[in-house]
Design brief:
Helices cover about 70% and strands about 0% of the residues. By secondary structure, it is an all-alpha fold.
């Protein structure tokens, strides 16, 4: 998907798809609150237009909105996501503990959130981590040429 959609349109398209799905959920739900789907569509359109306009600017926010972030911005994004994951995992654990202590029947959504977070963490480790480390580079050690090394091994 990201290869044929220009970087400036990627996030507005994602916002539009997510908003349309959420609006459809409210419409399918029906009942007296069906009109919320119209509000969701209006807010989604406004947000997508805002992100599209912001992506055209030459600022840090514009670079993030336009999917052209540099290394510093990507690192900040990764750290923010890691913090949010930690907070979600802690909140799910606290909710699960409170539900179990209260003998409530609503404990299982917290367990599902913890399971998804744990599986996501393990998937991240397998995707981004766990590679073999490179051998240590002895940058401070003096380098020996091949001839010097051969002379060191001479038994005389």
């Amino acid at each position: 998907m990201s290869t044929f959609i220009s970087p400036r349109l990627r996030k507005p398209v994602a916002i539009t798809i997510a908003g349309a799905l959420f609006a459809a959920a409210w419409l399918v739900r029906g009942g007296p609150l069906w009109w919320i789907s119209i509000m969701v569509l209006v807010v989604t359109a406004a947000r997508a237009i805002t992100w599209y306009r912001m992506a055209g600017q030459d600022t840090d926010e514009g670079a993030l909105a336009g999917s052209r972030a540099d290394e510093r911005q990507r690192e900040l994004s990764w750290r923010s996501r890691a913090l949010s994951w930690n907070l979600v995992a802690i909140a799910a654990f606290v909710g699960l503990t409170a539900a179990v202590a209260a003998r409530a029947s609503w404990w299982w959504p917290f367990l599902v959130i913890l399971a998804v977070a744990g599986l996501g963490y393990l998937f991240g480790l397998s995707t981004y981590g766990g590679a073999e480390e490179d051998p240590a580079d002895d940058g401070d050690a003096p380098r020996q040429s091949r001839a010097n090394h051969a002379m060191d091994m001479d038994p005389r």
